[in-house]
Amino acid sequence: MKSKAFFNDPTLIVDHMCKSLAAQNPTLRYDSANKVLYRPVGQDETKVSLISGGGSGHEPAHAGYVGEGMLDAAVCGKVFASPNFDQIISAFDRVATPRGILVIVKNYTGDKLNFGLAAETYQAQTGIPTHIVTIADDVSVPYSRGKLVGRRGLAGAVLVHKISGAAAASGLGLSEVAKVAQHVSDNMATIGCSLDYANLPGGADQPSIPENAIELGMGIHNEPGAQRISPQPSIEQLVSNMLKLLLNENDPEHGFLKFQGVPQNKSELVLMVNNLGGLSVLELQAIANVTLECLKAEYNITPIRIYVNTYLTALDAPGFNITIANLTPKIFDSDINLLSLLDEPVEIGSWATSQPLRNAAVAEAAPENKRARSPKLNKEIMCTFHLPMSFMSVRSLIFQNYIGDQRVFLKILENILAQVTTDEPKLTEYDTLMGDGDCGTTLLAGAKAAHAISEQGEETLASLSKGLMKVASAVRSGMGGTSGALYGIFLNSFVSGVQRNHEEFKEVNIQLFAKSATQALETLKGYTNARENSRTLMDALIPFVNELSKAVFTEKENASNALHKALKAAEDGAEATKWMKSTFGRSTYVGASEEGDDNPTKGIPDPGACGIVAIATAIQSVFQTQN
């Protein structure tokens, strides 16, 4: 079925929503071009900035929590879709302070990758520290199913916004605010249910959940629940079942909420009952009371704080979430009082316990379509070496390991474009069988974008710092999608590492690049759970970086030999993907996750891993030496 709506344009409705919120709060500004609602900050602001966001359709989250004491900016994607890099970087520009930026995102792939790419890029460009906390509070996703991608983020994210927002407002530094946010995230759990699916503005007709059934554990984007219960149980039985999933520490699949030796009825627990959008106030309050009675009768628990309202929705889904957060001081290794932070007043109407607005000075609005700050390099490393004329050929420069010369940089970009152009047809063929068929063309678009930097002339690459940053930016913009975000995160972290590690090595050499690549790989691992044997590009990237580091630092090989060994490791990793089952990406939907002969993609290498091999082959070919 499909309900009637006043708006059928999902983009227009988001724009109107944000403009309304800005009109109601004179301290806020709205960047219409990038769908960013923000609280302007001064250049000398002394607090850590908080940014959150994601797909729209969850209001009041996240735009409804922008204001003094909570978020400094919210980035609003399309309905149920992650915002893109340019939107997110605009938010960074508008609210960044020297104290740093804490980014709070829910555990969805698009949000993690795009916000992660923006954070790594901004930190590399400006030197302003960033930190990401990922919210994963959904206990309906069992351990066995979520061991790779993790649990989904639900209404508990709002409690993290509130407590960490108060921590930032109190003057704590980035590491302390991040510690507060991470602790709250790690010590809360949420379970949801719904009578039916949400209706998307302008979307197609949705199937309905049968009349006498309920979806337990349904996500906030119409994802299926963990269990469909039919016939529909009484509200008392339903709530009792939901609390068991939240509070049973011994449940091997759902026992996420731990109490660390403090009895549950002696712990300081916060209860949130959240309306997913389609319940009346009457029904929501009644559900909250049933929850309180069940907590007391079955667990002898009386929450120290109770929040009942519409905090994070799934458009108009007729359902609710129950969240329990454990703020017991004994389990938080700090003198910071989490309950006091939760109780701090805020000037935000969407927070149920907010106080009336005080008079606030209206800040000057920044131009909507222009960044408030221009990115600047944290450190500039030049690519020019003053060598005798006898050493000035590209081949000689390579042989001498002077890999910082701009002509070597140029040769690498040329070879990558040539190799990817050659390999694109087979990458596309593999991805047509395993995914959505765009792996080859996407990688080629990135290679062309990177090479276009070199076409501006050798002087463009005279600065290694600027050249690498331009390449990272070009690849990010040219590729797009999930692979673009993965490459972008790795490259931006690599740039940061090169600038940071140059202090140690004092010159541009293979040691500098190997160490920076190792650090970039560790950064990338923080944004994806894909590892070796996942049948992804990580099956080639991880062995390439690890073997490069081993060859350079343990075996003391020169650039040519080290890269030769690293390439061989990447080739072996890609070859091994032929016989793996897929655990990530679109290939899992075409049967590539099946065991044995039932896997229709058996014998086909992962196109993403082959793409890494193509790039590694191109780089290694530049460093081949003659006898």
UniProtKB/TrEMBL annotation:
Pathway participation: Polyol metabolism; glycerol fermentation; glycerone phosphate from glycerol (oxidative route): step 2/2
Keyword list, A-Z: ATP-binding, Glycerol metabolism, Kinase, Nucleotide-binding, Transferase
Pfam family, one: Dak2
Binding-site list for substrate: 55-58, 106, 111
Active site: 221 (tele-hemiaminal-histidine intermediate)
GO biological process: glycerol catabolic process
Domain DhaL: 407-621
Keyword Nucleotide-binding: yes
Reactions catalysed: dihydroxyacetone + ATP = dihydroxyacetone phosphate + ADP + H(+); D-glyceraldehyde + ATP = D-glyceraldehyde 3-phosphate + ADP + H(+)
GO CC aspect terms: cytosol
NCBIfam families: dak_ATP
Name the record gives this protein: Dihydroxyacetone kinase
